Amino acid sequence: MGGHEAHHSSEELQYLLDQGKESGALETNEHELIKNVFDFNDRVVKNIMVPRTKISGIELNTPHKEVLDIIIREGYSRIPVYDETIDKIVGIVHAKDILPLLAENKECVLRDIIRKPYFIPETKKINDLLSELQLKRIQIAIVLDEFGGTAGMVTAEDIVEELVGDIQDEYDEEKPIVEKVSANEFIIDATASIYDVNEYLPHDLPEDGDYDTVAGLVSEIFGKIPDVGEASDFNGYVITILKKADQNVESVKLELVINSEDAVDIH
Q: For residue 114, what pLDDT is reported?
């Protein structure tokens, strides 16, 4: 029997997917799941990792009484352990390993119970990492930058969320990365990736620079780490700094001032 096989580019499939959503043939959640599958193979851990500034870690020589307080306060079952600096992560402590010792008031020496960390580069594909985590039966990987310093960390849950959306557990605080104040005004979590933020904006912020997060883009726009209240025109938006902690921009406001077809890219 003769026949023809249809071959479509990823762009064509994306167009068909968007048309299916607009026509009502696909529900929003179905559309998002299929879109996530399309994107999954192209994404790297740098796009989804928890950045180093947000890593909750325990210093290797922390007194055992303080260790329990940290575990309870942070609410994670696995926490990185570092030696003096977060750039020197030496292991991962599991709550299930430490809690019995503390419950029996036994001395807890982190060095004796931490598990070997699994290090990966920022450029590793997330589909490859998921396979490795499953094979090695581990849940967390430490991401290294090109100089061998800690860039961030990523968990199996982070990867799964890329496919099926956020997984809320008892410790997750559900906070949107983009809050739509009005049709033209948005409050943005600056620590979020530009890729994720663009899902909610009327036109995209550029993704092809030497940055991954909105905070990184902001630093490039201003040429420095801007202060709260500073503002700049950029690509059809007015960007205003709303919140900053130490030298990290945490929240910005985007106000659309021109139509998306009038926007231009800086790159």
A: 92
**Contact of 153 with 80, CB cutoff 8 Å:** yes
Angle between helices 64-74 and 95-103 (to 10 degrees): 130
**In Å, what is the CA distance from 229 to each residue of 107, 217, 220, 238?**
49, 17, 17, 12
- What is the distance between the alpha carbons of residues 255 and 240, in angstroms, rounded to a whole number? 8
* Half-sphere exposure in the Cβ direction for 244 (13 Å, CA): 15
- Tokens 């959306």 appear where? 165
Tokens, residue 186 = 């948005």
User: What order do you get walking across the sheet with 58-59 strand by strand?
Assistant: 58-59, 78-82, 89-94
**CATH number of domain containing 184:** 3.30.465.10
Domain ranges, residue 33:
10-40
pLDDT computed for residue 37 by the predictor: 59
Give a yes or no: residue 3 inside a domain: no
- Which residues of the chain form beta strands (DSSP E)? 50-51, 58-59, 78-82, 89-94, 119-121, 140-144, 150-155, 178-182, 185-189, 231-234, 237-245, 248-256
Contact status, residue 193 vs residue 51, Cβ threshold 8 Å: no
Average pLDDT along the chain, 267 residues, taken 10 residues at a time: 46 53 53 57 84 90 82 84 94 86 76 93 90 90 92 88 57 72 91 86 85 89 91 92 87 81 42
pLDDT the model gives residue 86: 93
CA distances from 243 to 138, 206, 215, 221, 253 (A): 35, 22, 11, 17, 10
Q: Which two tokens stand for residue 130?
A: 């998921």
